[in-house]
Amino acid sequence: MTSTETTPSTAGGGTDRRRWFALAIVMTAAFMDLVDVTIVNIAIPSIQRESGASFSQIQWITAGYALAFAAGLITGGRLGDIYGRKRVFLIGIGGFTVASALCGLAVNPEMLVASRFLQGAMAALMVPQVLSIVHATFPAHERGKVFGLFGAVVGLGAVSGPLLGALLTEWNLFGWEWRSIFLINLPVGVAGLILGSRFITESKAPRALKLDLVGVALVTLGLLMLLYPLIRGRELGWPLWGNVSMAGALVVLAALVAYERRKSARDGSPLVELSLFRVKSFAAGIAVQTVFGVALGVFFLVWTLYMQFGLGWSPLKAGLTGVPFSIAVSVAAGLSVQQLVPRFGRKVLQAGALVMAAGVLLYLWGSGHYGLGIAPWQMALPLVVMGVGMGLIVAPLTDAILSEVPREHSGSASGLLNTVQQMGNALGLGLVSVVFFGTIGDHLRPDQVGPAFADAFRNSLGWVAAVMGVIFLLMFALPKRPAQHVEGEQAATEPNEPALVS
User: Fold this and answer.
1) Looking at the whole model, is its pTM more than 0.85?
2) Engineered SS bond to 270: which of 142, 174, 187, 263, CB 3.0-4.6 Å?
3) 278: exposed, middle or buried (C-beta count within 10 Å: 0-12, 13-18, 19+)?
């Protein structure tokens, strides 16, 4: 996350063949995190049925990971700069493995939610070190090839996560049911821990920034005060304390801004570099990234609930249905970066927002037209259209946001970009209580479940389409063409970083 703020040593990086083993290890860890984000959604109905989790607990199983991940990302990067990236990476992958075991062995929904928070916190230690270790291990002339491999791993993780989750849930290995989606991390994590301790070279930043634990605490508190009432409010009858808590969250976030301003003046190491928001394209881009995270957080959870609860599909059928979407995202992302953005600039991102909105509306129409008898092939066209739109956005968005950021702040900007993406995702998962469960009545008869979930899905799609319209308008504040101010190695690293946590 913060590796570009300093220039780590690459001693031995150009001649030591062990660096390729180190690359395989850190990429496996990145893949494990990516898969763990996407694999859970497809298994949620199985978790709900087997563990008896309430729908608010289901939301926390997904939102808790995103919240802990978001709150710790920048601090995780700085810990690596200060104490050593290898050391913090190994702590992160070891903790992630332990948390995965606790998730798989959870005896009740409460333990699973708590374990997911821990898993997200450990991912926040592990993930920021990946690109920092690559940067410290490989000489500049090799990094283009390395980040090409990294992009392929990211794409593979996005495509394989839901399908792997579906297969593991459907196969019911050793009678573990949904638990296997977490327990599969154990051998991978143990291998990464052992091999990483042997093959990864230690590196630190010469002048690392100090930690801002107060800033982390304020961010976490503010988000919890906002998310908890959103997720629990419906089932508790929207009590007064919930409204007070959500209003108080704004006060806490205002206090964060004031504290960060003072800390920046005092020691120059705030959690949030507020001066970045004076860059118009960055401020607008942060808004786009946050709102986009909200839309994705809403869609992917309600999509799973719709297919498995509303339509009664198996996890495997639901997982296979998403394959055209994942392929379309990957193809469009490659085209947008390599061919379209260099020619058309910002218009490509805006076209992506409109295309994705069109796909959402097409899906909304198809769900209503075909009803509960809709087939996977009838979902294929809207999903492909949505995937193309998303692909046109996700790949070039980071470069557009960071292109006008001063070089000395590029590390802080990239870390903040990752953080708000996850915060937006957590907020979207919280809003599912309002846009999805808020339209479903209590105490449904079995014959009412399917129609109720289908209606709630269509209502959610309407909100997602509206959000994409907002994103289209916000994109007018992005630069017409990303400025090419970033030199070789930085250009290779920063645009890829948010893909880790998409």
Assistant:
1) no
2) 263
3) exposed
